[in-house]
User: What shape does this take?
Amino acid sequence: MDIDTLPIYLDQIKKQMKKNNNVFLSSLSLTHIQAMHLMYLFQNKEGLTLNELTKMVDINKANTTRAIKDLIIKGYVTKENDKIRGFKIKLTDNGKNIAKRFYQKRHNNIKIMLTNFTNQEKKQMLLLMKKIVNNLNKEDEH
Assistant: This one.
């Protein structure tokens, strides 16, 4: 394999996963960005501040604010006053249900993607992907 084709394969994987997810998300009138916010909130049951969520999703604060406003209107999230850290954003019961369904959909897509991989190959691939991300992050710091 020519190593220069790596970005092409990574892009194809991302596009295919996004395509598979978008069918599900469009049925719920959700964008990919809104779904990412739901996933991070699903993983953080106690809720997150707007700044924490912005950092995790890795987009600008204006986009996070817009996504959260839309999710509040749809009844998937709520803002609760936290005396120590300001407002915390939490999933509603409906939001938990949607996030869980999306999580399962993503998990099934990953299972399909890795069908012919051994557990060792899956672990190795994850380690290699983490290394790639770490290397790119280090490069950004310079």
Notes: The first helix runs from residue 6 to 27.
